[in-house]
Amino acid sequence: MTKPRRIYSIDVFRGMTISLMILVNNPGSWAHVYAPLLHAKWHGCTLTDLVFPFFLFIVGASMRFAFVKWHFYPSPKFYKHIFWRVFSIFIAGILLNAFPFIRQDWDWSSFRFWGVLQRIAIAYGISALLIIRYDFKQLLPILTGILLFYWGLLWVGGTGDVFSLEGNLVRIIDIWIFGEKHLYGGFGIPFDPEGLLSVIPSVGTVLIGYLMGGMLHTTKNYTDCAKRMAIFGAGLIVVGWIWGFIFPINKPIWTSSYVLFTGGIAALILSGLTYLIDIRLWKKPFWIFEVFGTNSLFLFIGTGLWAKTIIYIKRDLDGEMISAYSYLYKTIFVPFAGDLNGSLLFALSHVLGFWLLLYWLYRKKIQIKL
What we know:
The protein is mainly α. The protein has one domain (8-294). The chain has 13 helices and 2 strands, in the order H-H-H-H-H-H-H-H-H-H-H-E-E-H-H. The chain has helices at 8-25, 51-66, 76-98, 116-133, 136-157, 169-178, 199-218, 222-243, 256-279, 287-292, 296-312, 324-337, 339-363; strands at 314-317, 320-323. Strands 1-2 form a two-stranded antiparallel sheet. A hairpin with a 2-residue loop joins strand 1 (314-317) and strand 2. It starts with 7 loop residues before the first helix and ends in a 7-residue tail after the last helix.
């Protein structure tokens, strides 16, 4: 097999996304968070709403280089590799939902099946099957078809306000197949933002990343490549924003306008990194993010296990039993910086702590893969 080469700008982009993920996922208190570090309540797009599509975009960009070793040929070994990778990531997501396993209050009738890793696994698998079968020119109309098809599905299949929390088809299908008790409850009613139907447009996000990765992979002139990515990204943003007036930009149901809008932003960032790193040769300033870009799936699982563990552990504070998570926030960070800034500082301490862990793995040249 041909060994795939690595693109430093993609590794840095991955690291930037990982660091932002840790920051937005670990505030000291969800009651005290700066607005950009929260998801939009429904329609709209904040800084936090960029994290997940950036992950899928980077998955797609990386696939362009990873599939070199298969010579872009759909061999039995390739399909076996894809199956086990999808299976391992999906099961990791299920186990993360089930953690901590020592809990005695399990109610399997309300176990949540879906999650971020499950979405990544399925979107990766479907995208891999498309990418290995169709060439670069064929994928663009396929991407267009996916986004238009999903728009039509939601338009026809929803009830009342078809793009609302209550009436969207994503929720209707998940309730029909899995039942309300197995869905995420954080929106006030049963609705899963990583539900089954919204896998369809998330494949579009992966394909946009793959197309941008293809530009980098085939270019002989990084200046020209950065310009083309910037133009393509700006075009996606404009089209996504305009489409958003009739098909609102919305992360929870992963609307087609959201795919284009966030994919365009990702393309612009990758274009900028290509300019700074590959043209201006400013590699050293981004070294911190290079470290963050290593062992990304391991880190995602690790941050989830850590948060769940210290939430599960109870500590006494002034006669009240609270989670170790809240105990650390209230006893260390609030006295030092107050509620709001203490919450931000708590999140930043997690960014630093996990960077140090990754730096140790980086120095030891340890790669933990699924």
